[in-house]
Amino acid sequence: MEKSLVTLDKGTTCSSWNYSGQRLATGSFDGTLTIFDSRHPSSSSFSSTSKSKVHHASAVVKVVWVPPEFGHAVACVCGDGTLSLWEEIVEDAQPLQWKLCKSFRSDSAQLLDVQFGGSSSSLKMVAAYSDGNVKLYELLDPLDLKNWQLQAEIQNVIDSVSTLGKAACLSASISWNPRGGESQESSFVLGFNSDTLQLNSSKIWEFDQAHQRWLPVAELASPNDKGDQVYAVAWAPNIGRPYEVIAVATHKGISIWHLGLNPDSDGRLSSEKVAQLSGHKGEVWQLEWDMSGMTLASTGNDGVVRLWQSNLNGIWHEEATLEPTS
Length: 326
Description:
With 326 residues, the protein is an all-beta fold. It has one helix and 24 strands. The model has no long low-confidence stretch (mean pLDDT 90).
C-alpha cells in the first residue's frame, strides 16, 4: 500500500534530502525555502517546520545541503544566478530559525550548479556558471559559514586553451568524490551542456596540495564522444574497490566509468568505460548512487526512475523501474 511521505507546496521547483534522509529542503517559484521535518523520530511522515524568503523576485531553482559536519545549512540557487547560504541557528533562547549567512553574486553569468566537498575538517565549494567558468571556494573557519575565500577559477578543459571564446552553457553537473580528503586529495567530476565542445566532456579535477592548485587528471569520454553535451554526473561511494566508479549521462544514454587510483608519470589517472545503459526515453536529468555505491538511480524527462546494478560478472542491468501513478 502506498503512503505519502510529504505533501509539497504548489509551485515547488526543487527539493533535496539531507545526508541522513531525516530532513527535506524545497525551493519554490516564489523564492521561498521550506524545511520539512518528521515530528517524531519513528514517523515516516514529514511536515513543514520553517519557511524563509530567499528571493523576492526570482524562483529558487536548486537547493543543496551543506555537509552535516558544518552545521544545518543549505545553499539556494535562484533563477537570476544568485547563490545564498542559509543556516539554522539559535538566538537568545528563541526557537530554531533559518537565517541568511552568506550571499555570492555573479556579475553577469548565471549559476548552473553548486556542490560541497572536501573532508570533515575542510569544506570546499565548486560553482559552475553559464559562461563556462568555474569558481572554487574554501571555508576559512569550519565554525563560521560566512567566511569563504575564492581559491581558484578554472575552465573545464584538459589542456590549457588560450583561444577558448565565451561559452553559452545551458546546464552543468558536479559530483565530488565522497572519499575525498580522507586518504587522498579532494577531487570532483564536472561536465557541461554547452555550445563549446572542449567544455562538455566530464573531467576529473584534483587538488594538487604541493602546488596549491586544481588540475584535470582524467577525461571520461571516448574519442568520438568528447564533444557530447553532459546532462548529469554522479561519483559513487567506494567501500573497498581498487578503482572509482562514476556515472555520466549524455544524449547517448548513461555510461559507467572505472577510474584508476594511481596516477601515471604525468599525474593522469586511467579511465575505462565499462557499460552503456539505455532505457530512458529522452534526456536523463539526474543520477544518484545509494550509500553503498552499488545501485544507481536515474530519472529524466520521461518521468520514470530506473534503478541499475552490476552483477558478479560486472554486467550492468536494469534492476527496477518506478513509474508515476498519475
